[in-house]
């Protein structure tokens, strides 16, 4: 959709073995355990970002029109 729907601040970044990261994040991860372990297969270290101060916009912003960026963008620091 090429829209920015909100913003958040990074509270912390965790880097541990995948088992520890899953134990810490599974309740709020939004993904299945199967997807998690497939994504981190054969990795010794997994990373997770803890977020805070979430703000959801009442009207999504256009990446192209509001930020003068050309999609696709998986992420960008604004």
Distinctive features:
alpha+beta, 2 strands, 26% helix, 3 helices, 78 residues
Strand content: 35-45%
Number of helices: 3
Query: Largest beta sheet, briefly?
Result: 2 strands, antiparallel
Name the helicity range: 25-40%
Q: In what order do the strands lie side by side in the largest sheet?
A: 1-2
What low-confidence regions span 5 or more consecutive residues with pLDDT below 50?
A: none
Quote the distance from N terminus to C terminus. Answer: 18 Å
Structural class: alpha+beta
- The whole-angstrom Rg is 15 Å
Average the pLDDT over all residues and give the rounded result. Answer: 91
Overall strand count? 2
Shape: elongated
- What pattern of helices and strands is seen along the backbone? EHHEH
SSE blueprint:
Blueprint: E1 3-16, H1 18-25, H2 33-39, E2 46-62, H3 63-67
Antiparallel strand pairs: 1-2
Give an overview in words.
The protein is of the alpha+beta class. The chain has helices at 18-25, 33-39, 63-67; strands at 3-16, 46-62. It has a two-stranded antiparallel ribbon. It is elongated.
Give a quick rundown of the structure.
This protein is of the alpha+beta class and 78 residues long.
């Amino acid at each position: 959709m090429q829209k920015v729907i909100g913003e958040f601040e990074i509270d912390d970044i965790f880097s541990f073995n995948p088992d520890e990261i899953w134990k810490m994040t599974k309740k709020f991860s939004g993904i299945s355990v199967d997807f998690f372990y497939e994504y981190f297969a054969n990795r010794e270290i997994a990373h997770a970002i803890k977020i805070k101060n979430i703000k959801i916009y009442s009207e999504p912003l256009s990446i192209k029109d509001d930020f003068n960026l050309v999609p696709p963008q998986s992420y960008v620091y604004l």
